[in-house]
Amino acid sequence: xTTFLLKLMAFYAPWIAAFLFAFxxxxxxxxxxxxxxxxxxxxxxxxxxxxxxELMMVVPLQLGSFANMLLLFWAVFHLWLMGKFDx
Amino acid sequence: MENVKSRNPYxxxxxxxxxxxxxxxxxxxxxxxxxxxxGPFAPWQWAVAQAAIWALNWPHVFATNCLLYQxxxxxxxxxxxxxxLPFFMIALGxxxxxxxxxxAPYIVKLLILWSPFHFSGQTIGLTLLYARRSGINLDPWxxxxxxxxxxxxxxxxxxxxxSYNIDLPYxxxxxxxxxxxxxxxxxxxxxxxGFALALFLAFWQLRAKKQHLPWIIALPLFVQYLWFVxxxxxxxxxxxxSSFHGLQYLLIAWSMQLALHHPWPTSNPSLFLIKKTSxxxxxxxxxxxxxxxxxxxxxxHFGWKIAFSxxxxxxxxxxxxxxxxxxxxxxxxxxxxxxxxxxxxELAKNRAPKE
Lengths: 87, 355
What we know:
The structure holds two protein chains of two kinds. Chain A has helices spanning 2-33, 37-58, 65-82. By secondary structure, chain A is mainly alpha-helical. In chain A, helix 1 (2-33) packs across helix 2 (37-58). The radius of gyration of chain A is 14 Å and the shape is globular. By secondary structure, chain B is an all-alpha fold. Chain B is 72% helix and 2% strand. In chain B, helix 5 (104-133) packs parallel to helix 12 and helix 11 (269-300) crosses helix 12. The longest helix of chain B has 32 residues, at 269-300. Chain B starts with 13 loop residues before the first helix and ends in a 7-residue tail after the last helix. The relative contact order of chain B is 0.18. At the A-B interface, helix 2 and helix 3 of A face helix 4, helix 5, helix 6 and helix 12 of B.
């Protein structure tokens, strides 16, 4: 079962990665304008978790150095965003 | 540029502040760059670097937790950081322990990305703090140059590292580098020099206007330059960078800790200072040792290798520290900035920290 799931995930990895990117970008936009401190901070934690997932999905795909460069700056942007946590 | 009331720029005095903020970094840089004949990674260097991590880096992480959890005010002000974040970090830790090959490398990757970013944040914070203590209001251009310089030096080193397309070992865990184009590092390197030039010109203009500019304001930036640019390929020096960061932090946390106890008893303030300092130091040394050594040791009895459990615990604790640190040191917060304006020698004379 686990092997089947892993194979399935590997097959769909580019789509899963694309979904994660779109989802986290949407959440970032939502958190950016969110006025409720508690919800915003929880969203930022979720966004950090999504970043970890994105790294896990994208890096093994070996999409090329340019895609990895975008991923690196996306990751650094997340770190900056985490400075907004619990303000 | 507007002058505000001039204050004592130092937490203690020029020599003590200088030692904690940068003199030691500069001295070791000179030694490892120009005088070290044994080459990188001689056994004694590993031993001294490890001892420095035990004595400086681990306690500084624990000191952050003390600042957050010892004050009911801080806990109430930052409830998510105080009460939710630990569970989030524990969940990440559990995932890493359950998935050593698939998830753990990315926790380490996050630590490797975040550490230098965090160090840069402290460099910026210290520069702004010393400027404020010196009574200098920085205009938006100067602030932008400070931020730009600090972040570009960090990005220059990070991009240089990430330009390799290999797996790098971190204790018992290998994490992937990204293999990005090499020219990215050169761009950030050049940008850092551009920001440095802009800052130099701005400081020069202030001097021309007879503005008193203590050089300690520029010391954190200069040290950052050694850590991430000039010393980036001095491998023995790099072993000590996290300890230098801890050393800087300990000066501020120690000063904050003493300011929180103001007013001190009028009889024998020196004895009070020694007692409080010893207690605090002993507590954070013990706390750091427990979290970073005893905890992984305990986990290793459940079947994981100590090198693996150390790497995960270290990453989780450090990332937690990055979050907490980003929250509790807000200069905009009046309580925080008031205590950060204290001077130990003035506290001993029972003068309150200035607003």
